Amino acid sequence: MTAHLTDPSLWIRRFHPSENARARLVCLPHAGGSAPFYFPVSKALSPGVDVLAVQYPGRQERRAEPCIEDLPELADAVVDQVLAWTDRPLALFGHSMGATLGFEVALRLEQKGVMPLVLFASGRRAPCRHRDESVHLRDDDGMIEELRSLNGTGAQVFGDEELMRMVLPAIRSDYKAAETYRYTDGPRLAAPVHAHTGTDDPKASVDEVGSWAEHTEGGFELHTYSGGHFYLNDHAPQVIASVSRTIASLLP
Q: Where is the Thioesterase TesA-like domain (predicted)?
């Protein structure tokens, strides 16, 4: 096990490694997002929780790799990486597309006998609540318009055409993965689900987020905040504190 924990992986970023942490938290980015989005989470939870931020292919230092445009395939790949880190209790946090991915990862872990402490599903409607969306089919200007409307991408990115052209392919691929995903009826999670969302999120109504309760046998909690799809940017301290309390309460 130790060899796995010290081998650098393209998939896992540990910004504040903590060998004595009582639990690990796997963080899954939103569409177009990357591992450093969770740097503040890692910093805030260290050293009590060892944060593993997942870096999908096709962005930053993995830009030369092909993106994975199928969510179940991406979940399979993430599980292959995460299994090396299950020497202590493991929780999952995903924002937007990352929440749906977290659900699929949690299902696969449970099928392998690894029981996550909890799935934190942020800013995402429940898998059973489908919306017919096709942003990934828009031209570049249409994609950029969508990103502007969600206020999750730094203004400096929009002002840098070269940078924008560089990141758009990964964003488009992630949107394709999220928008072509179809939930198929199957087992509920044994792990509890704690959903966090903004009350004015155009991508997920509070009612749609509440339907996460249908996907777990382990208990459900819904936490709402003012704001839209990236409510996290304004409420990070509260969300992180809630995550920390929840993990602590579920540890033996």
A: 26-247
Tokens of 22: 């009582």
Q: Are 177 and 71 within 8 A, CB to CB?
A: yes
Consecutive 10-residue runs of the chain (252 residues): their mean pLDDT?
46 95 97 92 97 95 93 96 96 97 98 98 94 79 78 56 74 92 95 97 94 97 94 94 98 91
Which runs of E-coded beta strand occur in the chain? 12-13, 23-28, 49-54, 90-95, 119-122, 193-198, 220-225
Domain assignment of residue 126, given as a range: 2-133+182-250
Q: Say what the pTM is.
A: 0.90
Residue 96 among the catalytic residues: yes
Pick the catalytic residue from 34, 42, 96, 122: 96
CA 121, CA 193: separation in Å to the nearest integer?
A: 7
User: In the chain, what is the greatest distance between 2 CA atoms, to the nearest angstrom?
Assistant: 50
Q: Residue 232 sits in a domain of what CATH number?
A: 3.40.50.1820
